Amino acid sequence: xxxxxxxxxxxxxxxxxxxxxxxxxxxxxxxxxxxxxxxxxxxxxxxxxxxxxxxxxxxxxxxxxxxxxxxxxxxxxxxxxxxxxxxxxxxxxxxxxxxxxxxxxxxxxxxxxxxxxxxxxxxxxxxxxxxxxxxxxxxxxxxxxxxxxxxxxxxxxxxxxxxxxxxxxxxxxxxxxxxxxxxxxxxxxxxxxxxxxxxxxxxxxxxxx
Length: 209
Ligand SMILES: [Zn+2]
Description:
binds zinc ion; L-fuculose-1-phosphate Aldolase; alpha+beta; single chain; about 210 residues
């Protein structure tokens, strides 16, 4: 192959990469709007990422999820901290360890009110009682660790090896999937199952009281 032809092919690959990246960033921005409009998190809280080869494409720190633009989404290294971590989501280390420990290709983190409430009411796990939650979501382990810490990264990634979602106690949901659609579905189910359980428990406690 002539050098010239090699250069052209490399250039085409680079163009394809940037088009793919643009498409992923647009998808992340779309799911940011969906998370807020569906009440899964308020605009100021939460983050979204997708795996792209040896990179993680993730929303920047301090962004409004419902106003997310592709310029507020950054590429960081999968294999370890990099310079762009400082503008990426403050939960980047959690996303990174989940990708390195599980089969996840996309992660959504929300501060969903019923899931957060249930994580403060239960000891170790939130068990769905609604039929879809039982069938498609399964147990949600409650994990410990402060925002953006190695402890939270370790605990969340261990939980997501065998669960679709876990809840950082008093903080929020980490939901994972093989695509953004799957991660969004898990995040939606996590909040729905937590809400149903909260309401049923509250009713029963009231009846007993
Ligand atoms: Zn958070």
